[in-house]
Specification:
This protein has about 250 residues and is mostly helical. The chain folds into 3 domains: about 1-50, no CATH class; about 80-160; about 165-245, Arc Repressor Mutant, subunit A (Orthogonal Bundle), CATH 1.10.10. The protein is built from 12 helices and 5 strands. The strands form 2 sheets. Strands 1-3-2 form a 3-stranded antiparallel β-sheet. A two-stranded antiparallel sheet has the order 4-5. A hairpin with a 4-residue loop joins strand 2 (about 150) and strand 3. Helix 5 runs parallel beside helix 9 (about 165-175) and helix 9 packs across helix 11 (about 200-210). The longest helix has 17 residues, at about 130-145. It is globular and about 50 Å long. About 30% of the residues are buried.
Length: about 250
């Protein structure tokens, strides 16, 4: 995450994505001794955060505007999961499922078996070797540890991370742009990425309503959620201003 925030903080908004990436490579912005390692990081950075122009502009705005660390970390985790199906399903299905059952410990062997089941179910283009599966399992656990969803070095434990209201609103608005509204937004399975239960999500919507970041109305089973802006960048600016006002 630190490397991602470094790249976003030095992004030249007057240059193209291609030119920015080329500059990062030429100037070795990340200070990596290995060019191949730097290129791997830049490839992941591009895939996760630069494909959607709306996301790119909003993240640059939030990072350069010094969005609080906890909020920007949640947002980066969300976009990472949304761009990587393996990370998404591991967090939203496997880790979330264990957490809801009160099973906190997660091992490499369990993760390996989960990947094998997904391969058997035809969720990969082709079969994977045992070595690839083990590396993927360790990579998944390391990724979720880096984002705070798992804790521990060797033996990992599930950990519900704190989701600030500002980050929650950003994610809710992004899901709204994807077509979710009302009850479908409230009950979106994407909230499982953060191990949030239905009552947690509703409480966050109520908190956001009280902070005038959105309008949340519930009348029985009818849910209405309205946002004050139409673009992700505009709404990110509103969230950023509110974060600084409350700091």
């Amino acid at each position: 995450m630190d490397e991602t925030k470094t790249l976003l903080s030095v992004w030249d908004e007057f240059a193209s994505t291609v030119n920015n990436i080329a500059r990062f490579q030429q100037e070795n912005i990340l200070g990596k001794a290995s060019r191949s390692r730097a290129n791997d990081i830049l490839m992941a950075f591009r895939q996760r955060y630069l494909v959607d122009e709306r996301v790119k502009r909003s993240l640059i705005l939030l990072v350069k505007g010094r969005c609080p660390t906890e909020s920007i970390n949640c947002i980066l985790y969300f976009h990472t999961a949304m761009s990587d199906l393996l990370i998404h399903d591991f967090a939203a299905d496997f880790v979330s499922g264990k957490f809801r059952k009160g099973m906190q410990s997660i091992s490499v062997d369990e993760t390996t078996e989960w990947i094998k089941k997904n391969i058997s179910a035809g969720k990969t283009v082709s079969p994977w070797s045992d070595n690839t599966i083990e590396r993927a399992a360790r990579g998944l656990m390391s990724a979720l540890r880096d984002f705070g969803m798992l804790k521990g070095l060797k033996n990992k434990q599930t950990s519900a991370i704190y989701v600030p209201v500002g980050a929650f609103c950003y994610i809710a608005f992004y899901l709204h742009l994807l077509g979710l509204s009302g009850k479908s937004l409230l009950e979106s399975p994407e909230w499982r990425l953060f191990l949030l239960e239905a009552q947690d999500v509703e409480r966050l919507f109520i908190d956001a309503h009280q902070m005038h970041l959105l309008e949340y109305r519930a009348a029985g089973s009818v849910i209405r959620i309205d946002f004050p802006d139409e673009t992700l960048e505009e709404y990110s600016r509103v969230i950023l201003e509110r974060e600084h006002r409350d700091a």
